[in-house]
Amino acid sequence: MAEGEEGVMRIGRRCYVSNLAWRTSWQDLKDKFRECGNVVYANVTRGDDGRSKGWGIVEFETPDEAIAAVNTLNGVDLGGRRISIVVQGIPWKFTWQDLKDLFTEIGDVERADVMQAPDGRSKGWGTVRFLSKEAAQSAIDSFHGSDLEGRTLTVFLDKKA
């Protein structure tokens, strides 16, 4: 999430990409994600030892390009591994309970998690596990693209689910 010149937050342009092959570089990410739009930033997170942590960030010029990446590249092969993509969009103050409560409107929620940074702050994305596939699809139909406290939600079925 980046802050613009007038203090306006630009939301929904970044994709979190996981399950990267260890040899995948930031350039590999950028080259692959250019299929969906103008990539303004790409990075593969590395540990203190310089080795890949298996995940990275790709930022597009527009939120629509980020959504296109989720819809077309989630689960594709990159460097011999099927990558997973999530676009951030959960309000920063949301806890797992807030997320669970929101999606309980749709169906029975087995578990909800909000991913956190090492300092305990929200990363702005999470997962919700429903007891039925129908409820999961209903959540996608109901919430994908909707605004929640000034953030645009991107909701999709996790390919590993």
Automatic annotation (TrEMBL):
Q: Does the keyword Isomerase apply?
A: no
Q: Which GO terms describe its cellular component?
A: cytoplasm; nucleus; ribonucleoprotein complex
What superkingdom heads the lineage? Eukaryota
Recite the UniProt keywords alphabetically. Answer: Ribonucleoprotein, RNA-binding
SMART domains per UniProt: RRM
- What are the RRM domain coordinates in residue numbering? 13-85, 83-160
- Under what name is this protein listed? Heterogeneous nuclear ribonucleoprotein M
The organism encoding this protein is: Monoraphidium neglectum
